[in-house]
Amino acid sequence: MRLTLDALNVLDAIERKGSFAAAAEALHRVPSAVTYTVQKLEQDLDVQLFDRSGHRARLTEAGQRLVQEGRHLLRAADELESQVRRVATGWEAELRIAVGDLIPIARMYPILNEFYAAGHTTRLRLFDETFGGNWDALLSGRADLVVGAPGDGPVEGGYNARTLGETPFVFVVAPQHPLARAEEPIPESILRQHRAIVAADTSRRLPPRSSGVTGTQDVLTVPSMEAKREAHCQGLGIGYMPRHLVARELASGRLIAKQVTTDVACPRISLAWREPSEGRALQWFLHRLAQPDWLEGIVA
């Protein structure tokens, strides 16, 4: 390979400092060493990188492109060095965190700010999952940590779990829906006559889970709890929602809570992580998420 990181670094310094002499001073080299590096690179590439016809050498168009693209390589090399050092000291290069959609993902952002403010540089990747998709993401290796996995985990193991609490659910309908005027508690036989709205399970391998659907009841499946909430507000169907996710809608009257004869149990949500769990970034999050402040209003 004719290009070297050292040569790219020299070109970057010349462009930033404005001259060979200033670049040499910044790099703590003699000017002749800088000149030699540039001349050798031009010979190796068979490309003129500087126009020397004037009083001061200036980058040619090819030289400008090399400096511009070379900076991407220099940044990538710096990041690779940082990753290697992090891994050597026990910090993961990347931590993948799945957030169950019973938990607003915005609840995680103040915690991420704390992580970054502490100077940790592990790359974080957040994504959301629904129902069994949380456990599926963990067991399939898509996630290292799951925040808010609902219900019981798969029996095959290979992970650790810690209960966060139970999430209260409420049965809701829109004020324009026929059941808004129904006498309470509403029997299951009446519920079956109306369309239920469910959030799709994002599991790719494990059997999908669903909640609050009976027998041959008509079902509208939507991609997330957020979409489910809005579908309820539009009067498209009935169903259960986490109380904290519809608190504003209940307060404003966009949704109405109704008593039914067969209320669902409050699902338990958990932290779950893969074994082994030696990474320091994972341990940081497990320690921070053990503090209950970020769960206010979510768990009973």
UniProtKB/TrEMBL annotation:
Keywords: DNA-binding, Transcription, Transcription regulation. It comes from the Bacteria. InterPro entries: LysR_HTH_N, LysR_subst-bd, WH-like_DNA-bd_sf, WH_DNA-bd_sf. PROSITE patterns: HTH_LYSR (PS50931). Residues 3-60 form the HTH lysR-type domain. One of its GO terms (molecular function) is DNA-binding transcription factor activity. It holds the Pfam family LysR_substrate. Belongs to the LysR transcriptional regulatory family. PANTHER family: HTH-TYPE TRANSCRIPTIONAL REGULATOR, LYSR FAMILY TRANSCRIPTIONAL REGULATOR. This is LysR family transcriptional regulator.
